[in-house]
Amino acid sequence: MSYLSDITLRRGLAFLVMALAILIAGTWAIVKITTGHLVDEYVKGTATDWAQFLAANVDDLGQIAAGEQPSAASMAFFKATQKSNQVFRYVIFNRHGYSQLLVDRDKIASVDLSRFSPEAVRAAKQGQRLVDIRQATEPGLPTTYAEAYVPAMVDKKTVAVVGAFVDQAEATDIIYQTSLL
Questions:
Q1: Which one of 53, 73, 105, 138 is most buried, by most CB atoms within 10 A?
Q2: DSSP 53
Q3: Residue, of 82 and 174, whose pLDDT is higher
Q4: Contact in structure between 151 and 123 (CB atoms under 8 Å)
Q5: Under a CB-based contact definition with an 8 Å cutoff, are residues 151 and 51 in contact?
C-alpha cells in the first residue's frame, strides 16, 4: 500500500491517460479486424451465391463451355440477370480456364479472343469455389468487388466454371460506416 501512496497526482494522471490510450487503441484494433472479417465473409458469400445461382439455372453450361451458343432459355436467364445491381459481369469458362461467354450489364456475347484465368483452372481442378476480393484497377469497375469462380459439375466432373463479378462497394461502405458508430 505504501507504493500507491508514493505516486504523485501527475504520475497517476499519466498512468490513467496511458491506460485509456491502450484501451482505446485495443478496442479500435478489435473493431477494425472484426469489421474486415465480416466484410470479407459477406462479400465472398454474396459472390458465391450469384455464381451458384447461375450454375444452377443454366442447363447448357457444358455446351456453352464447349463453345456453343446458349439456348433460348439460357439467353432469357442471362437477360434477366443483367438487371441486377450487384452482378456486373458473368464469365463462363471451359474447364481449362478459357473464357467462352461474357455476360455483363451491356451485352451478352461469345468471346472473340478467349481470356485465360488461372483462378478458373484452380476452381475446376479442386472442384471447389474460389473467391477473391479486389479493388478497382481499371476505369469502369466498382471500387470494391468480388470474383467468385464456381465449378459446374455433371456426374462429378467439372464441365465449366462460372465466374461472377459482384459489386460490393456499397455494402462494404455501409458495413464500415456502421462499425464506426
A1: 53
A2: H
A3: 82
A4: yes
A5: no
- Residues 173, 179, 181, CA angle at the centre, nearest 5°? 110
pTM of the model: 0.74
Crossing angle for the helix pair 169-180 and 9-57, to the nearest 10 degrees: 150
* pLDDT recorded at residue 102: 92
Do 149 and 161 touch, CB atoms closer than 8 A? yes
User: 18: phi > 0 → left, psi -120 to 50 → alpha, else beta; which?
Assistant: alpha
Distances (CA, A) of 171 to 103, 143, 152: 22, 11, 27
What the block records as the C-alpha cell of 181 is 458508430
Q: Quick one: pLDDT at residue 22? A: 94
Percent helix, strand, coil in the chain, to 5, is: 50, 25, 25
